[in-house]
Structure formats: C-alpha cells, structure tokens
Amino acid sequence: MSPSAERKKVAVYDPEERSRNLLGKLLERLGYDVETHQTSQKIASRTKGKKAMDLLIINLAVFGESYQQVTEEMESLKLTGKKIPPVIALTTLRISQDARERLEQLGAKAVLAHNAQLMDLMFTVNRLLFPKIRELRRYTRVFGGFPVRFLHEDQ
After folding, report:
1. What is the helix (H) or strand (E) element at residue 121, kind and residue range?
2. For 117-148, b where at least 16 C-beta lie within 10 A, e where not — what string?
3. What angle do CA 9, 12, 15 make, to 5 degrees?
4. Which of 77, 132, 138 is nearest to 103 (CA)?
5. DSSP labels for 36-105?
6. Could you tell me which residues are beta bridge partners of residue 91?
7. CB atoms within 10 A of CB 60
8. Is the pTM of this model over 0.85?
9. Averaged pLDDT, 103-109
C-alpha cells in the first residue's frame, strides 16, 4: 500500500479563506490528506463512495448565519449513519446545551467554537480519527509531525 493510501483524509469547509487555509496547512503538516472548500456544495459527495473522507471539519457558517438555517441544512445532508465520516462542527454562534445536543443529533460528533484553542481541535481530530487507541495517560496523544530543530555547537 502506498503511503498516501494509508493517510487519513480530512475535508475542511470554511467560508473564511484565512482560517480555511491555515487549518488545511496545519493538517497537511500533521500528515493528513486535506481538501479545503469554501462552500458546503461537496459535503454530500465526500460522505460516501470512493471519495469518502475520514473526517469532515465544517464551519457551520457555510450553512447560513442563523441556527435555524444551520440545522435545516444539516438535516438535509443526513450526516448520521454508520458509513458517514465523523463531523467536527465549528461555530461562531453562542449556542445553548440544547442546541449543541441538537447539532450532535444531526451528525456532529463534536461541536467546538470556531476560535477554539488549537490543541483542543487537534485532540478532537485525533480522538475521532483514531478511536481505538486507548490512552493510559492523563492527556491524549497527538499524532502528527511537529517540526523540531536541534542546535548543537555550530550545527
């Protein structure tokens, strides 16, 4: 099997170019195959078949500005089921616990603030992509290639 066939595939949907590109580049540096999209048009095609992703990260703003628009769009996409990849929903909306539970019923495996701390997002990505790895540590292990530089004398 080629190395690219072993890599997990992640699709990022975010209408904000800067955050979409930053998240895409970070995930690529961590060793994931990443697709980025500005709109929600390709979500349905990335949940089934040969081009199915292993994880979807969706800024809920791609569905609309209001909670009602978001829930209607998510309901129409049918993001629940065994073969549907896990979804991380990023939201700029302040939502209640009931609203969060409703988003989870509609397919979001995790709901995070759009400006969530990077480590919270990475822990969630790893938890959803590698669910069978059990940790005996206090904090979840993060898989990926973080750049490291060593300085030794003149080298």
Report:
1. helix 118-129
2. eeeebbbbbbbbbeeeeeeeeeeeeeeeeeee
3. 165
4. 77
5. EESSSTTTGGGSSSTT--SEEEEEGGGG-SSHHHHHHHHHHHT--STTSPPEEEEE-S---HHHHHHHHH
6. 113
7. 26
8. no
9. 91
Question: Residue 140's pLDDT is what?
Answer: 61
Strand order across the beta sheet in which 87-91 lies: 33-37, 9-13, 55-59, 87-91, 108-113
Contacts of residue 29, Cβ cutoff 8 Å, sequence gap at least 6? 144, 145, 147
- How far apart CA 74 and CA 56 sit, in angstroms, is 13
Measured between its terminal Cα atoms, the distance across the chain in Å is 37
Residue 116, both tokens: 């969530």
Residue with tokens 């709109």: 39
Structure tokens that stand for 63 in this block = 């569905």
Tell me which residue has tokens 């896990």.
86
Residues 124, 66: Cα–Cα separation, whole Å: 25
Q: Rounded to whole angstroms, how far apart are CA atoms 135 and 142?
A: 11
Nearest to 53 by CA among 65, 41, 44: 44
Query: pLDDT tens digits, residue range 63-74?
Result: 988 888 998 989
The answer to whether residues 86 and 109 touch, using CB atoms and an 8 Å cutoff, is: yes
